[in-house]
Inverse folding.
């Protein structure tokens, strides 16, 4: 490959990279604008509850054993 061809290829690749970078930034701006106009109710937090979790325990009537303030500091004691 001659020096001139290398220089032309490098310029073409840099132009393509700049174009891709511009497209990505423009798309990111659209996402932000969309979120501002239509905020999500989802906080982004994830809660995982294991199948043996005390949060799934029920009392003798089939009601959740822990709800409301009773969810604080739950320790399985079986």
């Amino acid at each position: 490959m001659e020096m001139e061809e290398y220089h032309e290829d490098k310029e073409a690749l840099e132009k393509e990279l700049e174009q891709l970078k511009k497209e990505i930034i423009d798309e990111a701006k659209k996402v932000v604008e969309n979120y501002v106009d239509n905020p999500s109710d989802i906080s982004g937090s994830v809660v995982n509850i294991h199948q043996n979790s005390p949060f799934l325990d029920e009392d003798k009537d089939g009601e959740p054993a822990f709800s409301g303030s009773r969810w604080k500091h739950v320790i399985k004691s079986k």
